[in-house]
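Q: I have two molecules that I believe assemble together. Could you output structure tokens for the complex as a whole instead of separate predictions?
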Amino acid sequence: MKIIRPIMRKEFIHILRDPRTLGIILFLPLFQLLMFGYALSLDINHIRTAIYDNDKTASSRRLAENFSSSGYFDVVARPNRNDFTQRLDSGKVKVAIVIPKGFEKKIDSDDKATVQVLVDGSDPNFARVGVAYSSMIISRFSTKVTTESLYRRGIVIRQGIPPIDAQVRVWYNPDLRSVNYIVPGLMALIMMTVTTINISVALVREKERGTLENLIISPVRSGQLIIGKIIPYVIIAFFEAALITGVGTLWFNVPMQGSLLLLFGCLVIYVTGTLGMGLLISAVTDSQQVASFGAFMATFLPAFLLSGFVFPISSMPWVLRLISYLVPARYFLVVIRGIFLKGVGAGVLWPDIVALIIFATLMVTLASLRLRRSLA
Amino acid sequence: MSEINNNYEKSITVNGLTKRFDEFTAVDNISFEVKRGEIFGFLGPNGSGKSTTIRMLCGILEPSGGNASVLGIDVAAHPEEIKQHIGYMSQKFSLYDDLTVIENLDFYGGVYGLKNDRLAKRKDFVLEMAGLKGREHELAANLSTGWKQRLALGCAIIHEPEMVFLDEPTGGVDPVSRRNFWEMLYHMAESGTTLFVTTHYMDEAEHCHRIGFIYQGKMIALGTPDQLKQQNMKGDIIEVAIDTSQEALQAVAGAPGVDEAYFYGATIHAKVDSVKRDVQAIEKYLKGLKFKGFSIRAVQPSLEDVFVNLIQDIR
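A: Yes, here they are, computed for all two components at once.
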């Protein structure tokens, strides 16, 4: 321990005296958080829509009204000409609702009326939501029409139409706000990239300066060296986590349901593992550029793509699903979302916590073995 | 703290030390001893096995064969113990540029487990020795090369090691600083510290008490500078003050009685069997080739002459 302390102190001086490192550590997370928090919204509403009302009757206007008041569709045009091809092509609208002439007449004469919904499928996610919302609006409208028509004929259906009502309750994130899902995930991502890149650059710099050679010849053991280097970054990760939690809860109104203590405990394990990985990367590389690029590739990409951050693991092909088990962010995401949104504790999260512990132990051990060999 | 056997007489004892990397033999069965308080110069071209030998002696590289002990401790059996008692300074000086003079010393002191009174005392000693008093709070980055070198030496000896390895410690340093630096080394040796120095500078090699010359992994000469000059020189050295063109070199090399000719500073040195017998013939030969205004004189062989000839003999 007495040997670890001077290493920690020195590492802190490096960080605090280099304005670039300090800037990356303080502002990059905040910047990433705000950028992703706003830009990476998966909530789809305000879909630009054109309604082609060729019927111009009370019924057709009611249907159009249902669209514009739904909150999902912004009716930006009600053209008189059927120029939907042009509007969809140019991207001016994403959805075109075409109500044919004779719409009301068909309803009144118990004939089957049709409404055409044209959706821009070039963004499938967007299209899926557009299709779902418009089907929902039209089906509600037709239920209403049926009920009214039966009522006019003196038939009252007490249980309502349709006879079965689905009682849906969304738990944990009842408003389905995607920011609640994104912000805790961002913590896993930001924590990993910022600290890992910095630590691997710091170690390679010691190689380049030749100071590592001196440390290897000194009585410092590689394990002590690694712990002494990791601890300052873990402390920095703490501050970043606090910052992200603060901005997330106060600015983005993400609920924090669980134990902060558990969150920060798991954070230490997670960050220790990724820092160990950063050291391992720099133990096998000789230039700062390669180290920072390697650290970025090894952390950000897998954490972004294969962790379940936005893309669900369960819908990946089996090869990627298998690889995702090697991505520590995968486990930390389960933990952090569990704590933030569900408020669950270690009793539920233990399998993922154990996985994080295994990862951290493995990385620190490998880094220390590799470091010992790298100079000898 | 490990127990160091204070009864050792030799700071380094090396016997048949060998290091193989796959097919390549970097250090090939070398043997030598270094006495306590001695400045031992370890010389050889790049890639001859110098660094590999130092690494084995510092306990960070396991020998493939033979044995070596440093301060009475076997390097293969107790590498970690050796680390406590040796200092190491490399050509790169290994300082942290963004740390101040005193922070560098604090760090290296801390790494060697020094604290409180002892650390304060040693820092004081080192600052005094290196002449860095009053510059404690300057960043290492702002020191000139000569000062960096002295600070690096200070960091290497902050824990009062009995044995210091210096790997090309004067590379890139101006002549005045080099002289000062060697003064410091002499002082250390006088107070009983053993120094193991590698260098490229032959004038520095002359300062060493004893020298080992390693070439292609083999120790090809060992002794005091005087011994080396006497024992390893068969024949005499003449200095030809001519010009430093390839033409002149080829002319001298082709002159009668010349075994070997090579540039030596602004002159050409040549090895001949006997000065008395050959000088006139060489003069005549060069004049015959229309060289003018040159002079030839016999010189005492320098270490460089010795090594050039040793290497030529092997080739």
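A: One point stands out. The mean pLDDT of chain B is 88.
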